[in-house]
Amino acid sequence: MKNIALIGFMGTGKTAVGQRLAKKLEWSFIETDLLIEQKAGKTIPEIFQQDGEISFRETEIGVIKDIIERKDVVIACGGGAVLNKINIDRLREHGIIIYLTASPETVLKRVSSGGNQRPLLDVDNPAQTIRELMEFREPFYQRAADITVDTSKLDINAVAEQIINRLKENESFDF
Ligand code: S3P
Can you tell me which atom of ligand 1 is nearest the CA of 10? Predict the structure, then answer.
């Protein structure tokens, strides 16, 4: 069974790149955040506000557990999914994990456009929070990653192409 999971900080392009990648491979595309919202029947900011982050993380674990039973799916994971090792173990067991990176400045620029859908960055000083959270999470992302791709100078198509080329080089991944 094989899938492709995209991990990385908020604003690293997991959704945009994942959609493009799925299209190129003619695979399905799934976003864990969307499934969490559907399961909870409310938006992510509402889940954080009404139920708390722990409840959000529990739903995230359940959603990832369900998705990995599928095949030929590009999965865009929420930025914090790596914090629970069980998610990484499951994603790895059923596929390959691609880590998308971007500089804190790029992330700030990307998440600042288009309203705040990210409760963790709904703070007085998002630039500082991004730097701190990124630093804390970096080892989690690195430990989980099979392949790492920088998206700072993001050309969605080029990133998707780069991922496909790297997958072709990867012996454990058989197209
Ligand atoms: C989160 C990232 C978000 C979403 C939630 C928590 C995180 O997803 O899951 O707001 O902890 O980094 P994106 O990475 O798709 O923005």
Answer: 14
CATH number, domain containing residue 138 = 3.40.50.300
pLDDT in tens, 97-155: 999 999 999 999 999 986 778 999 999 999 999 999 999 999 999 999 999 999 998 79
3-class secondary-structure state, position 126: helix
Distances (CA, A) of 118 to 9, 64, 93, 174: 12, 19, 29, 35
The domain tally of the chain equals 1
Q: Which of 120, 123, 132, 138 to mutate to test the pocket of ligand 1 (most atoms within 8 A of CB)?
A: 120
For 87, other C-beta atoms within 10 Å of its C-beta total: 25
Global pTM? 0.96
